[in-house]
Amino acid sequence: MRAQFVMSEIGVGLRRNLTMTFAVIISVALSLALFGGSLLMRDQVSQMKGYWYDKVNVSIYLCNKSDAENSEAGGKACAKGAVTPEQKQQIETDLKKMDLVQTVHYESADEAYKHYKERFGHTALASVVTPDQMPESFRVKLNEPEKYQVITTAFAGRDGVQSVEDQHRELDNLFQMLNYLNWAALGIMLIMLVVALLLIVNTVRVSAFSRRRETGIMRLVGASSFYIQVPFIMEAAFAGLIGAVFACLMLGAGQYFVIDHGASLRTKMELINFIGWDSVLTKLPLVLAIGVLMPSLAAFLALRKYLKV
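^ thats the sequence. predicted structure below, dont judge the formating
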């Protein structure tokens, strides 16, 4: 097979269907950019989970006198009064016996008041809050943060315990929202992918129809089916490759301008551990491979129907 002839046929095909080829490139680029973005979003969610789950604690708040008075007015959590030293000691002992628990830190009412003033001292409410109104608490760090519900089940409702709060629930809501956004991006990607495949099939069909005389002559002189099909398949692969390159450029531009460069998310949202270039670079070969293989396969299947060879 002469490579020069194949390349000339590819050039002819691309020129004849320039508008449709351009539409294929744009569709492939957008669909693959969304695909790569979805993969990066999944990496980001996983990285945030590992980062935040390792830092957040389960807090066991203890009853104080103020809670006991409110319980007499109708509450139930601290109906038996403020926590006693014996109950406090028992809670700490039970926590330290659990294999799931890594560390237990006791925070007194004075320490809680100090931390409250540091965070909310500028608000009007801070001026009327007194140390005796702040609850004592145990801050529990777990070896396996995903099993935080074990602590809630074991200590919620115990005498002397006002409430058990785990910050993981708030994080779970955030990660669930991010997962929904990721699924939405995947849904849009699938729609764009279908559009791209339809455009590829139509482009190959039009190209095959416009060159039916050439293919007929080639068939008469004994050219093999593969020899006739290769220019059409390579046209689709070439258009897909260009679209995949544009998709890679969009992913790289998103990482550079949105996350890393200048007044980006990395500088504005320092509490979030964003993914790095290593995550982006590992996705680019996959994007390029799909960009070449997907149009090639679509063109091959289309040729079996529209090109009788």
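The beta strands are 58-62, 101-107, 137-142, 161-166.
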